[in-house]
Write a structure and sequence with these properties.
The chain is mainly alpha-helical and about 110 residues long. The protein has two domains: about 35 residues, no CATH class; about 55 residues, no CATH class. It has five helices and no strands. The radius of gyration is 25 Å and the shape is elongated. The protein starts with a helix and ends in a 36-residue tail after the last helix.
Length: about 110
Amino acid sequence: MYSIRPYTKYLEETHQSGLVDDKEFISLQADVNERLVSLENHIFDWEVPTFHSIVMEFPVFSMLNKDEIERILANQLEKKYLPGEIIYEVGMTSQYVYIITRGTHHSYIN
């Protein structure tokens, strides 16, 4: 996660050491505070795509009729994995299709 704290600390240190005069320090500090307030009050207007919209992006699902898609949607299960957790290994049997909707994955083949 991004933090502005190291920059505010650096600004304070440069002011204390005399590299930034009082007038410039006050101006820079006001700018930083204004940006912080703006970030704190920002409303992120985005939505995580629905499972239905994700399913429709895969060609294998696009051939299904509405009833078949509704059956899949009725049986879907959202599962959250921890970083580094193994979802599937070669040779494992599976009765499921895994669709990653958020995050990243790494594939390793021995």
